[in-house]
Amino acid sequence: MLHTIKQHNKVAYLILIFAIIAIVPFIINDDYFISVMNQALINGVVVLGLNFITGLTGQMNLGTGGIFALGAYVSALFNVALGLPAWVGLAGAVLMGFLIGMCLGYPSLRIRGVYLSLTTIGFTEIVRLLLNNLVGITGGTQGVQGIAPFRIFSFAVQGHRSNYYFILALLVILSWVSYRIVHSKWGRALKALRDNPDAAESLGINISSVKIMAFTLAAIYGCIGGSLYVHMTGYVNPSMFTIDLSIKYVIMLMVGGIGLVRGNIIGALIVTLLPEALRFMGDYYQLVFYIIVLLGAIFLPDGWLSIVGVLKEKIFTGNSKGKAAKT
Amino acid sequence: MSEKTPVILEIKNLTKRFAGLTAVNDFSMEIHHNRIHTLIGPNGSGKTTTVNLITGVLQPNEGVVTFDGNVVTNNPPYQIARAGLGRTFQNIKLFSAMTVLENLMVGGHSKVSQSLPAFLLNIPRARREEKLLREKSYEVLEFLGLAKIKDEQVKNLPYGLQKMTELGRTLMLEPKMILLDEPAAGLIPSERSQFVETLKMIYGKGVDLFLIEHNMDVVMNISHYITVLNFGSKIAEGAPAEVVNNPEVIKAYLGERFKNPTDTVSGGAAENA
Questions:
Q1: What pTM did the predictor assign?
Q2: Which domain holds residue B265?
Q3: d(CA B73, CA B66)
Q4: Residues of chain A found within 8 Å of residue B98, distances taken between Cβ atoms
Q5: In sequence order, what are the beta bridge partners of B226?
Q6: N or C, which end of chain B has less CB nearby within 10 Å?
Q7: Mind listing the pLDDT tens digit for each residue in B193-249?
């Protein structure tokens, strides 16, 4: 009984968040703001994926930049070089994600911890260098231009607002899929792998295949994000796909709080919007942003949403240990 | 308890060497169905290595492990678990960030078959599987008397209840046999006797038990058959009364005080606890 109530609460939060996002353009009618929000929503998709591998399974993946880039380029080139519609590009990106998941997943079976992080950093760099130097295919530093938008029957998804609701719709669907996985035997298996792989294996869980599954989910979500991005902007070049981007996604995951679907969305929104909100500080805005992130990591390690719980405990029990002892 | 019951687990000429040290040396034993079997021996005698060889965590240099009629040597641990060999760990290995119920549900993971793509597409079946797992977990929790604490995070539980949770999680695998690595370690006497009663209840349900145990109180209370290991080799085997009177066992493991089992069982147990 308690379980179903908790479950319903989680869904209610998620619906509330999406409802607020849906009415934002009616309240803040500013093209630039909406374009930043579009970026935030795409980031939301990517973080939903990262949650599987880094959040639930606890494997630090710094390859998200490379994953995003490959999804972006596959989708862009399917459209520009092969003349296929954006939806086919998206399908290609999903397939690409599947392949990356397999390729990144296998080494993760043998290496862990900081070595895995290094491997994924290497992956991002290799992708960026290939995109820069395979000029014949990728256009090099010039990038790919004239990428067509998504089309729904005869309607082209163009302009900030159309993109906004299009991306939001996909984000809602992908959140629902993600939510189902997180709160199922698969989500539990991923968490089991993080908590105690030996025990998971002793219970008949094939940890190798579960790990590869987590990588594959992360890569598919990341590639979908890349595909949405290029068809929104119509242009892509390799300059943005650095390790910084990978790290930004990890920050989004941390800020939102690991494991929860709503946290992934909130994290993506905060980390995308906050630097913009701090721009009035001129040269110092990045500095201030990272100081805020650092303080969050120290005082709210379970994500910024956990401030509600922390405050509640402080107010109702006087100290943070009192409640834990009582329950 | 008769000698005629079929063999559920057979270890044949098992040898494991670690860089010059022979941890298990040409060790053979048979565990019969319907006979609670206990492996005892001094620290460093190779008990845990034997467990790891049986469960697939380690691969033997020589020898064969047969479980339930199938050779399982060199199979990965998850396959051996799926074949019906459950286990608990010497120092509890729980999923500490999860609740008791969730721990049990992970235990049943391999008992529901839907793959991830099927899970994403066939929602009604996914719901049924989840419900099945939940109901089965409730059953096991009820059986072990853990129903009240099902929503507690396991890291907040006392040690005894954590051990019970671990046992419940293994039961979710519907094992044919459970291998318990020092189940009584760290339990206070009252918890210990309760745990032994629970083990007997599980045995009563038709699950075979194989214990690695130090606590002679528990060993004498529950075992039908005992194998003694020393320096990686078997030094004795037989019914409890025979084994505790075996001079070699007394010398290697039990100590002189065990010569007369009638008045020394409890004393020796306290020492070994």
A1: 0.89
A2: 29-92+158-272
A3: 7
A4: 188, 191-192, 195
A5: B38, B238
A6: N
A7: 899 999 999 999 999 999 998 888 888 889 999 999 988 889 889 998 888 888 888
Smallest Cβ–Cβ distance between B106 and the set A180, A188, A324 belongs to A188
Kindly provide the ipTM of the predicted complex, given to two decimals.
0.87
- Cβ contacts of A302 within 8 Å, gap of 6 or more: A257, A258
Residues of A in contact with B116 (CB under 8 A): 181, 186, 213
Domain count, chain A: 1
**In this structure, is residue A150 part of a structural domain?**
yes
Residue A294 inside a domain? The answer is no
Q: What is the pLDDT of residues B173-192, one digit of tens each?
A: 999 999 999 998 888 888 89
| CB neighbour list of residue B104: distance below 8 Å, 6 or more residues apart | B137, B140, B141, B165, B168, B169, B172
Of A188, A199, A202, the CB nearest to B102: A188
- Residue B11 domain-assigned (yes or no): no
Q: Which of residues 84-123 of B touch A (CB under 8 A)?
A: 86-87, 89, 93-98, 101-102, 105-112, 116, 119-120, 123
Average pLDDT over chain A, rounded to an integer: 91
- Token digits of residue A59: 């494997």
Which residue type, as a one-letter code, is found at position A28? I
**Number of structural domains found in chain B:** 1
pLDDT tens-place string over residues A219-276: 999 999 999 999 999 999 999 999 999 999 999 999 998 888 999 999 999 999 999 9
Residue tagged 């068809």 (tokens) = A231
Cα separations in angstroms, B223 against A113, A305, B55, B193: 43, 53, 21, 14
Distance between start and end Cα atoms, chain A: 18
Reported as a single tens digit per residue, the pLDDT across B85-128 is 999 998 899 999 899 999 999 999 998 988 999 999 999 999 99
At B128 the pLDDT is 94
In a domain, A271, yes or no: no
Q: Provide the strand spans (E) within A62-208.
A: 144-145, 151-152, 155-156
**CA gap A291, A300 in Å, rounded:** 13
CB within 8 Å of A256: residues ≥ 6 apart: A47, A262, A263, A264, A265, A266, A267, A268, A270, A303, A304, A305
Nearest 10 degrees: Cα torsion B154, B213, B35, B223:
-110
Q: How many Cβ atoms from other residues are within 10 Å of residue B267's Cβ?
A: 13
The range of the structural domain enclosing residue A52 comes to: 28-241
- The SS3 of residue B90 is coil
CATH number of the structural domain spanning residue B266: 3.40.50.300
- Is the CB of residue B63 less than 8 Å from the CB of residue B15? yes
DSSP state of B157: S
Give me the pLDDT at residue B260, please. 53
pLDDT tens string A18-69: 999 999 999 998 999 999 999 999 999 999 999 999 999 989 999 999 999 9
